Amino acid sequence: MAAPQNPRSILLIVGGGIAAYKSLELIRLLRGAGVGVRTVLTKAGGQFVTALSLASLSGEKVYEDLFSLTDETEMGHIQLSRSADLVVIAPATADLLAKAAHGLANDLASTLLLASDKPVLAAPAMNWRMWEHPATRRNCAQLRADGVIFVGPNEGEMACGESGFGRMAEPEEIFAAIRTVLDGRAVTKGALTGKKLVVTAGPTHEPIDPVRYIANRSSGKQGYAIARAAVAAGADVTLVSGPVDLSPPAGGRVIQVETAREMAAAVDAALPCDIFIAAAAVADWRVASDHGEKIKKGSKGPPELKLVENPDILAGVSGRREARPTLIVGFAAETEKLIEYARKKLARKGCDLIVANDVSPEAGVMGGDENTMVIVTPEGETRWPKLGKDDAAQRLIEYLALRLAQREGV
Ligand code: CTP
Q1: pLDDT of residue 24
Q2: Which CATH superfamily is domain 196-407 in?
Q3: Mean pLDDT computed over 88-97
Q4: Can you give the pTM of this predicted structure?
Q5: What's the 395 CA to ligand 1 centre distance in angstroms?
Q6: Is 160 annotated as catalytic?
Q7: Burial category of 31 from C-beta neighbours within 10 Å (exposed 0-12, middle 13-18, buried 19 and up)
Q8: Where in the chain is the domain with CATH 3.40.50.1950?
Q9: Using one digit for the tens of pLDDT, what is the confidence trace for 302-359?
Q10: Torsion of Cα atoms, 82 then 87 then 90 then 93, to 10°
Q11: Does domain 9-182 have CATH number 3.40.50.1950?
């Protein structure tokens, strides 16, 4: 990766987790890209890596103690907290996140986080149960609301022998996130300022006659949550919504439609945009014949309904030669073979990534308040933990802001 044009600097807080060894590699990557790194080693962090290793790799003094007379006379902790362009916490332990969320300041790392006026990027690392604990969920939600940017954690095997979400993001991932933030493309509030986003949501209703229709179980909750998160990130949002029982997101433009064909036309009219997200559960078929009057029960028995295929909105937008959005996101709602089908859909629809959801009745996604998203891209797939639909939406928007920035930066 190329070095940023202006020399930049990072204040790296190394917390107490086995993943601290990866921070050594992170320092190496940063230094290689010409980024200056000052490190703060917490007491717990010092159990995993030594100040000597950090100093050797960073070429800088390592700060460990809030009450160090030498450090305070050379560079006070307030000055230190503002000395870099970005504060990075890696590994960000449950303890460090809890302290930061509550504004505690009882050691050097927490005091720096409270005193700093710079953006903060956190790379959490902990046992999966700690990560999923409601206390950690609350703390992360608070930190996100405060503007902290998260990278990871990932799913995988942990040092404790258990497997799940909590593995720290790889140094390369953290490095890429740092670069994005340093390039002024942070995924905090305002990450999508000046960007136009179009999202479809809800089901479509396909009339059989003036009183009956074909529908599906989509509640529209995830699409609406995405629209809200995008508004919060500063985007100019157009939500094209099928019939749902939800309040329109404040600050967005809502276009209400009923059928797939109306949805396709509304999306078309809303383009061009930077990001298109097809979260709607569009009915695949509609009734071929147009019954102007209510179908009556007759002597001929039940009516035979001939179905014809609806336009594929996502494939249509992805296939545009002109005014194709920079980033196109599809959803794959599957009841089996989630990844396999999602990957096929990615290829078939020509979009840039697929958010795959398990919608088998056991998963409770359809109509429920939680969602487990798997992000499927041509490069691979990442499974996110089960999150409330608002948190999942926020995470998706952060992720998309990063990807958009990376695309535009190419
Ligand atoms: N989609 C769309 N227009 C359609 C059908 C689907 O824009 N007519 C979009 C959905 O919004 C979603 C993605 O395509 O983002 C996948 O939808 P899904 O219903 O899971 O896929 P299908 O095309 O119906 O494929 P399959 O029948 O194999 O599930």
Answers
A1: 98
A2: CoaB-like (3.40.50.10300)
A3: 98
A4: 0.63
A5: 22
A6: yes
A7: middle
A8: 9-182
A9: 888 999 999 999 999 999 999 999 999 999 989 899 999 999 999 999 999 999 998 8
A10: 80
A11: yes
